[in-house]
Amino acid sequence: MHLTLHADYSLRVLLYLATRTGRPVSTQEMADAYGISKHHLVRVVQTLAGQGVVDARAGRSGGVVLARAPADIQVGSVLRAAEPDFHLVECFDRERNACPIAPACGLKGVLDEAREAFLAVLDRYTLADLLRRSRPNLQDYFLPTSEP
């Protein structure tokens, strides 16, 4: 299984914001801190804002902040919102499934069970749990930025 960059960046944005409490953070600052595309991060922030996980305000005094406490942000929910689908194999996609053995194959059920187990594990963790599992100096690992 491979998560999309959108899902990966969603979790990275949340970790960054959780280490920068007390002030709005620009998407440019986060892009610089990770060495990734600002344009992609804008879409990620839109997804997270739509989910009610972050607040994003435009303008000179704007920026992005967590909309909820880290303990109230569930990792599994974030990934479900950020991933376009969790189609592990072709037969998971009913519209594009061209596998000739799909009606008789037992693989889909096993993979579906594995996918659900994967998401169940992620549902047990919050952003606060990720912070507790990280090194205390996590913020020191971000690339230097021009922002404070």
TrEMBL record:
GO MF term set: DNA binding; DNA-binding transcription factor activity
InterPro entries: TR_Rrf2-type_CS, Tscrpt_reg_Rrf2, WH-like_DNA-bd_sf, WH_DNA-bd_sf
Top-rank taxon, per record: Bacteria
Alphabetic keyword roster: DNA-binding
GO cellular component: cytosol
Pfam families: Rrf2
The protein, known as: Rrf2 family protein
